[in-house]
Structures are given as structure tokens and as C-alpha cells.
Amino acid sequence: MASSFIDYEGRGFWIKDDILEIALGYVCIAISHLKDPSHWLLEMQQLFKDNSLGYYSSYMHLNLEEFLGEESSKTSFLNVLDNTREIVIAEGDMLDLTILNRYICDEKLKDVWQGKVEQQRVLKVISYLNKLVSGEIKTLPSDPIDYFF
Fold first, then answer.
1. Residue 92 host element (H or E)
2. From CA 54, how far away is CA 36, in angstroms rounded?
3. pLDDT, tens digit (0-9, with 9 covering 90-100), for 47-72
4. Is 129 helix (H, G, I), strand (E, B) or coil?
5. Residue 100 pLDDT
6. Which of 11, 36, 100, 131 would be a feasible disulfide site paired with 136, CB 3.0-4.6 Å?
């Protein structure tokens, strides 16, 4: 399975693409629930959707530095992650991935989400994204560290 290094300001973490695709799908759901999302959040949502559909295998990129250049944007994104966490928790211990079909689906490819995944795996990804943007993760791409999601 492909892996990507997700970074912000030169630091980040390695993650398997499949679990990141799922977590980003839930972030997209959280953004879609916002009443009046800013333009940059809608652009981020589209990039996250593209990443969730597997368009960037082994090179998933979130462009966090581009989107989070201002402190207010960073705060807004952290709030989106908090909302994402609430959505994931509300789904129960095992997440039914068919919910993503309403938000993340490529009609041309007929790519359909199916199956289940443990809630804790997605919550861990959300937590790592939060820690990354908050400056708590200091890992470099060359560091010999592996994570289990």
C-alpha cells in the first residue's frame, strides 16, 4: 500500500494513503456542513476530495502551507478538524464507509466507497493533523519513524 509524507512547515508524518483518504473524506463532510465556508476552505475541500479519490497515490499533498498562511485560517482549519472528530465519534465504533459516497465519489469512474473501518484509526489521523498544524509534530521525511493508523 502506498504511503505519503504529510507536512506543514517542513515537519510532518508518514501515513498509508488508504486511511488518509478516508480521514480526508470525513474532513470534507465537516466542511460541507459549514453554513458559509470561505473560498479557501472550498478549495481545500476540493483538493482533499481529489486526494480521497486516489488521484495522488504515494504523493498525497494537502498544501497546508498554502491554505493556512494566516493565523485565522489555521484556527478555522483546527475548528474543522474538531467538527470532523465529532462527526466520526457520532458514527460509532465501526465507520460505515458508504457515507462517503454522498460526498466523495467520482461518477466517471463509478468509484464507490464500501466496507467498514475502526473509528479509532480515523480519529488518530485527525489527531495527527491537529498536532501537525499546532506545531507539535517535528518529524522530518528522512526520520526513521513509522506510525500505525
1. none
2. 28
3. 998 888 777 676 788 999 999 999 99
4. helix
5. 81
6. 131
Examine residue 109 and state whether it is found in any structural domain, yes or no.
yes
Give the span between the Cα atoms of 117 and 19, in whole angstroms: 9
Residues comprising the chain, all counted: 149
User: How far apart, in whole angstroms, are the C-alpha atoms of residue 17 and residue 52?
Assistant: 9
Question: From CA 103, how far away is CA 112, in angstroms rounded?
Answer: 11
Q: Kindly state whether residue 63 falls inside one of the protein's structural domains.
A: yes
The CA distance from 148 to 16, in Å, is 9
For residue 142, what is the enclosing H or E element?
none
Residue 92 domain boundaries? 3-133
CA angle 7, 10, 15 (to 5 degrees): 25
Q: How many domains does the chain have?
A: 1
The pLDDT tens digits of the residues spanning 108-128 come to: 666 677 788 999 999 999 999
